[in-house]
Amino acid sequence: MTYSIVAKIPEKNEVGIAVASRFFACGALVPYITQDTVIASQAFVNPLWGSRSLDLLQQDILFEDVLSILKEEDLARETRQFHGISKAGEIVQHTGAECVDWAGHVRAENVSIAGNMLAGPKVIEETLEAWHSNAHMTFPERLLLAMEAGEAAGGDKRGKQAAAIKIHHGQPYPDLDLRVDDHADPLRELRRLLRVADERYMIFKRALPTTDNFSGMIDRRPLDQAIARAADDRQQNGYVSPSYAT
User: Fold this and answer.
1) For the whole prediction, is pTM greater than 0.85?
2) CATH superfamily assigned to domain 3-184
């Protein structure tokens, strides 16, 4: 199952992952992410590859050595697919010999893409191309555009069901965490959720506490004013919200 992209924008302190699959709730088992490390564990998924990797990396073990440990410990290593980027920017990738065709991975600076049960290699190749060609976009939009390009190239050969995006921006909690667990067009649904997030959430999150400012925004009046201005702008521009909120 599954194709995914993990990426970092070091100059903006952003790290994130996007995943799509014909597998229910892939966003629950594939992504493993902290404020400086991002990992995808997929194929005949072993979630412990993700959680154990994060633990081992905290011990300052090189990522390549972490991968070697995982492969040594897991008797089903050849059915696993795994890739990620460490705090130091080290990229590791593993596609086991028994992963269902088509399966493979590609990489470039600060980005890794891998997939299995795909329509063919063009899926991850087009995902990488879209990542590079949309460097001017916001991080969430860039991840989604990359995934959409992979889907247009065939995506998961079994079909579509679930997708997710998760991003950290220098904090121990997610800057954005969206999941679509069961949908006929999950990437399109992710795009709707991103639009809804832009309405209020992306403004609200500026008020959240950080490791440098434990209290965050104390006076919420500037926040309320910013939300009100954004709502007025949308109304004047004839914006129709895609939110289901009532």
Assistant:
1) yes
2) Aminohydrolase, N-terminal nucleophile (Ntn) domain (3.60.20.10)
